[in-house]
Each structure stands twice: as C-alpha cells, then as structure tokens.
## 1
Amino acid sequence: MTEAVFVKCTLDDRRVEVIDGWVCLAGRPEASELTPLDEHPNRQAILKAVPGATHMAGRLPLTLPEASVAQAALRRANDSFDGSPRAVQERLQRAVWQKAMAEGTD
C-alpha cells in the first residue's frame, strides 16, 4: 500500500487524497484519472457551483493547484509497476472497461 497524498478538504471536512492510484473521498475511491473541465459535459454547471474548478476527479471539482497535486500523485502511483497476476488482471479489466465506455457500451 502506498502513502496517501493529501489534495484538499471538502467543505464538510472530508479529506480528498490520492491512495493507491485513486483519488479518494474520505478513503473511498472516486476516480483513477482527472478530467479537464473543458472536456466535461457539465462544465457550465460545475463552473457556476465552483468558479475556480479546472478539473474533475469523478464528482470532485479541483482547482489547478489541487489538480496538479493529484495528477502528480496519480503519476507516481502509475509509475510503480506491479507485475503480480492480480495487478495484471486489474489493469486488463480497467482497459476493457475503458474501451467499452469509449465505444458507448454500458
């Protein structure tokens, strides 16, 4: 298990951290990657609610400094390669899921 990297606290004092390659809210995984706000389908509503947001991590809006911390931690977690059969299976499952989502399959 890798060390948690603190990103921010929400208004209700829950911690947003990167843990084992996931952006987590209160220790629960939210997203494995960041989405630039320019590419998000609900960007206008997000900007209205959080004017400084530049990225989304699942349902979590992040400012540029927060996104920078999160992205660096995600990269560090991704750079450490685990070649165990379980880790390989998880990466394959994630790749299949991402391909299916990109093709519009639910």
Note: The helical segments are 43-49, 64-79, 85-102.
## 2
Amino acid sequence: MKHNDPTDISLEVAASTFAALGSEQRLSVLRCLVRAGHNGLSIGELGKRTGVTGSTLTHHMKILAQAGLVTQEKQGRSIICAAIAYDAVRDLSTFLLRECCADVAKKCKEHDHG
C-alpha cells in the first residue's frame, strides 16, 4: 500500500490492508517489527519475540508483505524482516478518521483529528 495522500486510499485498498491485520498473530508480528525500527529483525529473532515460528510465521509474513506492510531481505544466511508500514498505517488511520462526525451538526472537539 503506497500512497502519498491518505485521501487517495480506496475503500477496497483499505479493506484489503485491514484484512492483512485481521489476525492477532499478524498484528503481533507487525507491532514487534515496528518496535524493532528500520533495521528489523532476523526471522529467528522475530519468531522468538512473538512466539510465532516456522511455516506459520512464513505464512503471516507473506500476507503482511503482500499488503505492503513489511519487507523480507536475505542478508547472508539470515532473512531480515522489517516494517515499512509507518506511512501506510498512518494513512489507514486518516482514512478512518477523516470523516469523523461528518453527519452531525456539532463537530466533536474531543475527536479533533487534524
């Protein structure tokens, strides 16, 4: 999911990206990679930190990568996984909140989203 303007996100793209996050294990993997920063983690370390290993982790990483939320790069004998989702997740949040209180006469001040 690559967007420069969050207002450009279509409902279809947002739905497919949210679907990729629709698993507790995938969400845990993504959160762990976000915590690790741009350097990412080896697939082994990611598995240790999340408790998701083997073919299950491979499956979840494939779905997250297809959604454009993570990358996997071979470095020597290791596979390094990293989150690239920072802008995409921010765009998804904006997608959800941009019409907050749009159908009410008095706009909600406590939910001022920008």
Note: The longest helix spans residues 24-36.
